[in-house]
Amino acid sequence: MKSFYNAEKISDNVWWVGAVDWSVRNFHGYLTERGTTYNAFLVIDEKVTLIDTVKTGFFDEMMERISTVIEPEKIDYIVSNHAEPDHSGSLPQAINAIKPEKVFASAMGAKTLKAYYGIDVEVVPASLSLGTGNLSFVETKMLHWPDSMISFYDRDGVLFSQDAFGQHLAGSKLWADEYQAEILEHEMSKYYANIINAQSAKVLALLDALPGLNLPLQIIAPDHGPLFRKDFGDVFAAYRRYAEQKPQAQAVVVFATMWHATEALARAFADGVRSSGVPVELIDLAVSERSAVMTVVAKSGLVAFGAPTMNNQVFPAMADVLTYIKGLKPLNKIGFAFGSCGWSGEGAKQIAAELENMKIEQPLAFIQSKYMPTREELLKAFDAGASLAGMLVKNTSC
Ligand code: FEO
């Protein structure tokens, strides 16, 4: 049947039947600058199985793609690897339209789907025969929701990894090796920093367990972005690198400013870092947002945050970013707080307190100027940058 949305075959028995969201830019607060995809997969075996669905609003696209392979009513099973609505939003509609014999999820997934949609689904067994191949399931709790699991179709060696190894990257190509390596690395590391980072210990445990599962891996098929058909070692190594969070000889200075006083301190601090030979990036919160900040923070061994005081509080844009970063639990950083104030002066103190809450080491006390920083204060900021960059170099060269 001729169709305006087509399925794409990824292996002998498996088809991609997902949706491409070219327009989304705000994914629950994450700036998806290149859009995203919601990947769903159709396994054509004796028991025809749909793995995951798509976000609400993309149901027709998924069904049209499915219809190019098989009449949707012939689907026997639906497996929900992850109940977050970007993958389950179309599940109630799919169940109504397809009327599958069974719908499966993890034990937590079953509870979550019940809570969201009032639907009852079965808890997956450890392994499910589809006829010529088996689907096996491994719970990956908190990667990145309590319900998350991954599925493996042994006949074709396809690992359906849900959010893990994904990228928010819309495109007309299905395979990761069809994208520029720099774009892929940027989107994969950004995704990890903003979605997965808080659960890095669990990622390392999963990476350690995967070889023992002896999966005859042919394809890694995440629920977002392109799929991997080769270089799996590189994919796992990238995730291990992100998860280990070893300090990198790179610095970031994140600042908010009202009348350029904090900005002047930020620039002086950054030049001090630069004088020590450490690459440094300045991020002005007036023109940037939290997911871009976290992406750079994750890669930086030295992280400095500066903001003015406003109405006895740290400037709100900085409070937002610090709250966001705290939840993502970055490790192995040297931190520094600074700011400016007119009278009461809580801003830099509150930043320093938040860095302490995050267990980010602060070898130097915060700097705070009254109104505009003096030349002496700017020199002090410069020296702080140079000194902390020197410590970072020592830490990263051991
Ligand atoms: Fe892509 Fe956690 O959902």
**Averaging pLDDT over every residue, what do you get?**
97
Distance between the termini: 62 Å
Q: What ligand molecules are bound, each kind once?
A: MU-OXO-diiron
Name the shape in a single word: elongated
Number of helices: 12
Number of distinct beta strands: 22
* Major sheet description: 7 strands, mixed
Strand content: 15-25%
SS class: alpha/beta
Strand order of the largest sheet: 1-2-7-8-9-10-11
Helical content class: 25-40%
Uncertain ranges:
none
- Rg over C-alpha atoms, rounded to the nearest angstrom: 24 Å
How does the SSE layout of this entry go?
Layout: E1 8-9, E2 14-16, E3 19-21, E4 26-27, E5 30-31, E6 36-38, E7 41-43, E8 49-51, H1 59-67, E9 77-80, H2 85-88, H3 91-98, E10 102-105, H4 107-117, E11 122-123, E12 127-129, E13 134-139, E14 149-153, E15 158-162, H5 181-196, H6 200-209, E16 219-222, H7 232-244, E17 251-255, H8 261-275, E18 280-284, H9 290-299, E19 302-310, E20 313-314, H10 316-328, E21 334-341, H11 347-357, E22 367-370, H12 375-397
Parallel strand pairs: 8-9, 9-10, 10-11, 15-16, 17-18, 17-19, 19-21, 21-22
Antiparallel strand pairs: 1-2, 2-7, 3-6, 4-5, 7-8, 12-13, 13-14, 14-15, 19-20
Helix pairs in contact: 5-9, 6-7, 8-12, 10-11
Bound molecules: MU-OXO-diiron.
MU-OXO-diiron (FEO) binds at residues 82, 84, 86-87, 144-145, 163, 223-224.
